Structure prediction request, 375 residues.
Amino acid sequence: MITEDDIVSESQRKFNLLDYSTEKMKTFFLEHGEKPFRAVQLIKWIHQQGVADFDQMTNLSKSLRTELQKIAEVRPPEVVTEQLSSDGTCKWLLRLEDGNCIEVVFIPESTRGTLCISSQVGCALDCTFCSTARQGFNRNLSVAEIIGQLWVAKNLLQKHPTEERVISNVVFMGMGEPLLNYNNVIDTIHLMLDDNAYGLSKRRVTVSTSGVVPALERLTDTVDIALAVSLHAPNNELRNKLVPLNNKYPIEVLLKACNRFLDKKAARERITMEYVLLDGVNDSDEHAYQLIKILKNTPSKINLIPFNPFPETRYKCSSQKRINRFHDILASAGVITMKRKTRGDDIDAACGQLAGKVNDKSKRESHFIRIEKNL
Ligand code: SAH
Prediction:
């Protein structure tokens, strides 16, 4: 008799085709005696059309479909809950095969629709103002789990298609440090940019990093996409405290890598510098002047983010008056500065609030050292 356990283990033995970039899919097909153009057909079905059922893939031969059914499947993360904010922001809790959960947020705006995705379960860095850091670190997400967030969100949004429900932008600003899951993030980005898959514009896919410099150097030479840097402080003394990774890669080293990133491709005009305003910590006039000075030679756009509190945090959000003043100092020095609006407040979908459910392994230090060795 077939038990439920048998079914689960049977399904887990099958290849998850969401894990496959176009190149990897071509190799997979060649290994199974099929022509590489079949791989492109399959990529289109899975990612462009959002189809998981091989029977619906009508331009594949019946025998190929039967063969695929035996050995492979399209296995996205499972949607546990969907929450819709009064401002249109949508948040999904997704369960992974090992029971960990991650959150994905879609933010509709008048000119774009942005999906905020995660790259790790938890985070190995320990930024003091971030709630993901509080949860600890479990593991890297696979390609299937990262692209699966886009796959699921796109399919769910298309169930009730309107202009406001199109994903035009993807930002790696959910849980985790994308540059510490380098290979899987790069494979996923290739799928996002591939016209046979999602065909997103390279200016509309943004990797956000706390500043893992060796990986940033690799990224510069590998893909042409947009970059956001979580700066949050204008001097090393303060940044060492807020973003402890700064002890390893201080501001001047990080900005040098940023400049090389910008030099490499003419299409890259500026880097988005993220700056969470923390009351009485990094929001004084003096901090604004220091910021102008350090960014003098790095074409940037500064994104001022209101701090989103979470339980037991020691920080408070700067007052609106302070935020405005900080903004005005930067703007009058000619620095492009945006005040980011908080979205999805009523469903805890704002930056740094994505919680998910992390089974913390808390081996931050050893994990980080191991990853760094591979960079
Ligand atoms: N590890 C990456 C990506 C994840 S964080 C990075 O550091 O860039 C995405 C953005 O949310 C970062 O700029 C981060 O600093 C910001 N953020 C984290 N916690 C926050 C909070 N409590 N309030 C507002 N923004 C926060």
